[in-house]
Amino acid sequence: MKILRVEPEKSPEIVDMEGTLEALQAAVGGYIEAVYPWDDPVAIVCNDDGKFNGMQPNRALYNEDGEIMDIIAGTFLIVGLTDDNFAELSDELAEKYAALFGTPEAFLRSGDRILVFPMGPDPDTCPF
Length: 128
Hints:
Layout: E1 2-6, E2 13-16, H1 21-28, E3 32-35, E4 42-47, E5 57-62, E6 68-73, E7 76-81, E8 86-87, H2 91-100, E9 105-110, E10 113-118
Antiparallel strand pairs: 1-2, 1-7, 3-4, 4-7, 5-6, 7-8, 9-10
């Protein structure tokens, strides 16, 4: 199935992978957790223990006011949804979420706040 893979410090990548539990777990490096922060028929599939087992912070999730709601640690996937299962992403949704997560982010703790900084181009895809 076609999904969007988002790795720390890299641009999102549309990939084709099996939709099995084992394939999803391998892609995120452990037990999976599904998160449903949007009205679109998509889910974030991430490592259930990513924050607790030292995975690198990857991307922030923001509310409608631009405030950080959560930070996803480690590689995560954006998958489509059916009534009862994960599914392939449509081209439209793949493009939408590739744009949303297109800029890698860096994180810095300052007191009781976490600051988020956009990173430069992915060195693997930068033409210069």
